[in-house]
Structures are given as C-alpha cells and as structure tokens.
Amino acid sequence: LVRNTNSFSYSTYHTLDEIYNWIDSLVAEHPDLVSKIQIGHTYENRPIYVLKFSTGGSNRPAIWIDTGIHSREWITQATGIWTAKKIASDYGKESTLTSILNNLDIFLLIVTNPDGFAYTHSTNRMWRKTRSINAGSACVGVDPNRNWDAGFGGPGASKNPCSETYHGAYPHSESEVKAIVDFLLSHGNVKSLLSIHSYSQMLLFPYGYTNNLAPDHEALNNLAREALSALTSLHGTKYTYGTTFATIYQADGTTIDWAYNNGIKYSYTFELRDTGRYGFILPANQIIPTAEETWLALVKIFEHVRDNPY
Amino acid sequence: QKLFVGDQVLRVTAKNEEQLTLLRGLEGMEHLQVDLWRSPAKASLPVDIHVPFHSLQSVKAFLEYNDIPYSIMLEDLQLLLDQEQEEMKRSRM
Lengths: 310, 93
Prior knowledge:
The structure holds 2 protein chains of 2 kinds. By secondary structure, chain A is an alpha/beta fold. Chain A has helices at 16-29, 74-90, 95-103, 114-122, 175-187, 217-235, 244-247, 255-261, 287-307, and strands at 34-41, 47-53, 62-67, 105-109, 190-198, 202-205, 240-243, 266-272. A 4-stranded antiparallel beta sheet of chain B has the order 2-3-1-4, covered by helices on one side. The radius of gyration of chain B is 15 Å and the shape is elongated. The chains are: A alpha/beta, B alpha+beta. The A-B interface holds A 9, 12-14, 122-126, 162-164, 200, 248-249, 276-281, 283-284 and B 1-2, 4, 9, 11, 27, 30, 35-42, 45-46, 48, 50, 73-74, 77, 80-81, 83-84, 87-88, 91.
C-alpha cells in the first residue's frame, strides 16, 4: 500500500491500482494545488483520472500533458508520475515553476489508456492499443493515436483491426479519446498539448497527416530546438525534432494534429528514451534520468506558453 | 499471461527505399506475426522488429536473402520481461 507519495518508489514500474492509489495520496497531500478529475471511463469501465494543478482563478490558460496512450510504453506513465510529484513538490519553492503555476493550470493524464495498461500487467506486456471489440473481427483494440478527427482514416493508419495502427470504426470511437476531446473542447482555454510516447528520442509537432507545414511551423520548430537543448544539457541524450510527417512518416488521426487543428498552438509529441538497446523494456533504473531530462524540456515549453499568450 | 520465450527484437538498417518497401511488406505477412516496434520510415532511421521465436528463421532468411543488414537488439524478450517483473516484486517488498 502507498502510505504517502514520499515512500513511493519512483524508480520502479507500477500497476494501475498502485498508480491510482498514489494519485489519491498526492491529492490528499496537496489539497490546495492538486485535484483529481474523472473525465470519463474506458471501454472496460475503468475511470480515467486527470490531475489538475491549479493555484486558483477561473478557467485559466492551461497546459495538457498525457502519458501512456500506447500502454506498453511504460517509461511514459512512470515519467508522468515523477512529473506530477515534481510539480507538487516544487510549487512555492522553485521560482520558475511557481511563476508558471501562478499564471497557468496544468492538467496531467498519467494513464491515458487504462484498459491497455492493465492488460500489459495482467496478460500481454507488449499490448499497445485500447481493448475495445471490433465488430466483425477477432482482433481487439484500436490505436488511440490514430483515432482522432485529423486526417482520420488516411494512409498513415491501418484499416485492418488486427494491425497495431488500426484507426477504429470512426473518429473518437474510443471512449478514452472521446473523453479527452470532450474535456479539451469544454475547457476551451488549453494553450499547449504535450502527448508523451516512447521510444525513439524525438520531439514532433504537426502535421502528421499531411506534408503541408502548419501556419505556426517556425514558432513550433524554434521552441522544439530550445526545449531539446535544455533536455540534452542534463545527460547528453540526443533527440531529433520536426514535423511528424517529415521526421518519421505519415501518421493520420493523431492527438497533436487534432489539438493543433482545434486551436491548441503548442502541440507536441515527445518520444522518450531509448534509441535501441531496450525498446519498450527500458530498465526501471532509467526512469528517473529520463523524467529529469524530460522535465527540463517541459519547463521550457511551459515558460514559452506563459510568456507568449495568444 | 502471454510468454515471449525465445522471441527476438531485430534492429534493421535498410539501405534504400526498395529495402524499406520490403520491410513494410513483412507486417502484411500475417503468418510471421511480426510486430514493428519502429516502423520503416526512411533509410536514415532504424527499424526494430519484434519477431516471435517460431518466425525467427524465416525473417532472418528473408533479411539475408534481400541483403538487408540487421543486428539482434534483444536476444530473448522473455528474459528481460522476467527481470522487469522480478524488479517490481523486489520494489514492493
């Protein structure tokens, strides 16, 4: 049992129950800063919880971060936990973060795909997708990062329910995706969306579904360079950056493309460590170094969002 | 619980677009049941392929026949997963 968030081990991987218990502890320890919001439930009826970090105000400009939309990318949920603790611990002690939180709210969705994540712990460590049933197919699950209404169904996703990049029956068919869409649209004041994945050490920005450049391409590119300079300064970890389309391949229906097309200018996908020694089985002793370096990049983006209102 | 005993992850470095196209075709060969951890994108980027034990010989033969360089990134996936589980157990204790 998690007694408090200080006795929790941040350098090991945890189950969904452990993470949800830990979330309750964090909220209990920081009631004036952190709250837990249930934004929906999964296909298998698990709750989807977002942590809200807010120092007050009404519907302040906000930053959204999600980790673990692909359930097997365990380093991302672990980084989300460490990041939440860091935000809660540093507020009021560290001037940059304090200033950020005095101007912006931060929403952090640590387990974006709870069904998939539970399945990685119980049945198949390599599971990536959701766990919804596909009519007419024996194959289960949809790639929730191909399910957004942004170039949905194009060639950068699969029509085959058995594929790891299956886009689903229609945009936002996955309750996990719909929950986020509804929340972000009803909030209406989210200025940055950071979707955290692993592994290939990249910082990507729109677009993925087209090779057209986004209207804010230059600003996104410059901020990516600055954020990665900060990230690399800690352990020398090398990242590449650019649009999803140009840097890796065409990917349709992705989170950040939807976010950008819905007015969230600073939309990025992180691909955390590593570059090819372990893949999705990144050893737990790399959680903290990964989270620490990622934090430096996140803060650069937070600062930019704070200083460049739109 | 699904086991991955003897499964390997191969790191493939395609030399040109033609080889990338061949690698893209691997996913469509359903009997091989490969899982592209890093999909074929461009020749400058590696491709990581999780290959079940029963398909190892076929996939390696395919790569060698087509002169596509590869190395073994993970020798036995299950060994790493066992270590991961062990570490989680230790941490809980």
